[in-house]
Design a protein that fits this description.
The complex is a heterodimer of chains A (267) and B (266).
Chain A (H helix, E strand, L loop, with lengths): L14 E10 L2 E11 L4 E5 L6 H8 L7 E6 L2 E2 L7 H5 L2 E4 L11 H11 L5 H14 L15 H13 L5 E5 L7 H16 L3 E5 L3 H7 L2 E6 L2 E7 H6 L4 H24 L1
Helix pairs in contact in A: 3-4, 3-5, 4-5, 5-6
Chain B lengths: L8 H26 L2 H8 L2 H7 L2 H34 L1 H16 L2 H16 L6 H28 L2 H9 L4 H16 L1 H14 L15 H12 L3 H28 L4
Helix pairs in contact in B: 4-5, 4-7, 4-11, 5-7, 6-7, 7-9, 7-10, 8-9, 10-12, 11-12
Classes of the chains: A alpha/beta (267), B mainly alpha (266).
């Protein structure tokens, strides 16, 4: 058990994507993406809907099979049929927009099942690790609840704890707060911020511009299946150099945020 | 329509309902008034004949019907899950599963029973263990497996794809995902249609008469039919019908309750 994945190296950057293409039928969603994420880096991917950002994230752990190109994840070539994709995935946590908790298990059960089945941990050890992670996301009092009895924000935090229980080296977030009521977004973002500060390598597809600006090291703007622009998050969001990025950011930031600011000032 | 005076729709509805009640009451009165009650009682509800059948209608016939039903249901359900998983997995095995399902859904159950009981021993000199009942249960297992496979397949496909994605992203294999995540949820979904399948199967055990039974192997319909010919009286058929209903009515009621409970809109 000590050497579960001998092909995984720590000398390479955890995520290396080269010339990635993905088509659904005639519709080419990704048109040649090159992207490297280094150890401990937090990268946010922003862009209008249909820009291919979720598809990119789903290609990283092979939930979508790329049409062309290379994805090296923790030193393993994911597009190589000989690579045990399941094995690499145990090191890559993923959090979905729709939480996707297993409804037939409690919060604790959700965090235990893959530890037991995949990592073959003992029941005691798995429960211990699951408890620790549920505590970390602030849900120590909800461990025995089924997902249906939890709010969206709580469900999403269970989903994060479930992914963390596998001791991943990379975390992928696919619009983790997009399905949440506004007042529940904060709790989830706080957990993600803690994770980023703890040094986790993270790739986050999001519409939360303040999270991208304040937490991530680098932000990538995608449109039409290509990376239009990328750079240090604060620079990209505060002073984008491409016109398309400016148009997108104005649309995302202006109507809501200006109004919110106005309200806070009035208060 | 034109002969009726104009009425508001609500009034017309009420008048229509009253008229149908009145008609129903009239029919019952005529039947009650003109029927030969003495004869009806003697032919259909004859206590002497009923006593002759008691208690073997329960201790032999109903018991055997339930044994045949439950054993083919359990075995058939296992077969159904196997067939459904294979069919969804695709490939040559999936193709074989599809062919199996389509074949046995496409031919009468009676033919399958007949084949298991007589054709196989005749053609291969191999008698299926358990005589008539053994061959019958095997045949019903296959038929139920083929029908229920489609129910289970629909149930598996009704589980949200996000469930599979979440399990796979945790590193679970496709087999582990199916066993631990998808199947438990799919089986909940298929409880109501599978209960219906059980009721259908219970009635289909009446077809087993072609497999040939000894006295103590008889199920309800064979039992009733034999009693009908020995007594020359219809009471056994009424009693057999009642015995089926004792089992099927609570089950169909249960399905209704389950469907209400599992209805996501509630």
């Amino acid at each position: 058990m000590t050497n579960l994945t001998p092909n995984i190296s720590s000398s390479e950057p955890p995520i290396q994507i080269t010339d990635l293409h993905k088509s659904f039928g005639d519709n080419e969603v990704l048109k040649g993406i090159d992207l490297t994420v280094t150890e401990g880096e937090v990268v946010c991917v922003i862009g209008p809907s249909g820009s291919g950002k979720s598809t990119l994230l789903r290609c990283v752990n092979m939930l979508e099979t790329p049409t062309k190109g290379s994805i090296r994840l923790l030193g393993a070539e994911m597009t190589d049929p000989d690579v045990e994709v399941d094995q690499v995935r145990t090191h890559v946590g993923m959090v979905f927009q729709s939480f996707n908790l297993f409804p037939n298990m409690t919060a604790l059960g959700n965090c235990v099942i893959a530890q037991r089945q995949v990592l073959k941990r003992s029941r005691t050890e798995a429960v211990e690790i699951a408890r620790r992670n549920l505590e970390m996301v602030g849900l120590s009092d909800r461990m025995d609840y089924h997902p249906a009895k939890l709010s969206g924000g709580q469900q999403q935090r269970v989903a994060i704890a479930r992914a963390l229980s596998m001791d991943p080296r990379i975390m992928l977030f696919d619009e983790p707060t997009a399905a949440l009521d506004p007042e529940l977004v904060g709790d989830v973002l706080t957990v993600m911020r803690d994770l980023a500060e703890a040094g986790m390598t993270m790739m986050v597809v999001t519409h939360e511009m303040s999270f991208a600006r304040d937490v991530s090291d680098r932000t990538i703007f995608m449109d039409g299946g290509v990376i239009v622009e990328q750079g240090p998050s604060a620079d990209l969001i505060n002073s984008p150099s491409e016109e398309r990025t400016r148009v997108f950011l104005r649309r995302v930031l202006d109507p809501t945020h200006v109004a919110e600011l106005g309200e806070t000032e009035a208060d | 329509m034109s002969v009726l005076p104009y009425l508001k729709p609500t009034v017309r509805k009420r008048v229509g309902r009253l008229a149908s009640y009145a008609l129903g009451v009239a029919v019952i009165l005529v039947v009650v008034g003109f029927a030969d009650w003495h004869k009806i009682q003697k032919v259909f509800f004859n206590p002497a004949v009923a006593l002759q059948m008691w208690p073997s209608i329960i201790t032999i016939a109903l018991k055997n019907t339930l044994i045949y039903t439950i054993s083919s249901f359990i075995l058939g359900s296992i077969l159904a899950v196997l067939l459904a998983v294979l069919k969804l997995a695709g490939g040559p095995l999936g193709w074989a599963a599809s062919a199996f399902i389509e074949f046995f859904r496409g031919i009468p159950a009676l033919l399958t029973i007949f084949t298991a009981a007589y054709v196989i021993p005749l053609a291969f000199g191999f008698q299926i263990p358990g005589e008539g009942p053994g061959a019958g249960v095997l045949a019903l297992t296959i038929v139920t497996g083929a029908y229920a496979a489609e129910i289970v397949r629909a149930g598996i496909q009704a589980v949200a794809p996000g469930q599979t994605e979440a399990a796979r992203s945790l590193g679970m294999s496709s087999g582990q995902t199916m066993f631990w995540v998808v199947l438990p949820q799919a089986l909940r979904i298929v409880i109501p249609p599978m209960t219906n399948e059980f009721v259908m199967l219970l009635k289909d055990t009446s077809l087993l008469y072609v497999a040939g039974f000894t006295l103590t192997q008889k199920e309800l319909t064979t039992f009733g039919q034999d009693a009908l010919s020995t007594t020359g009286n219809a009471t056994p058929i009424v009693m057999v019908a009642a015995a089926y209903l004792i089992v099927t009515l609570p089950l169909t009621w249960l399905v209704g309750q389950l469907e209400k409970k599992l209805d996501p809109k509630r």
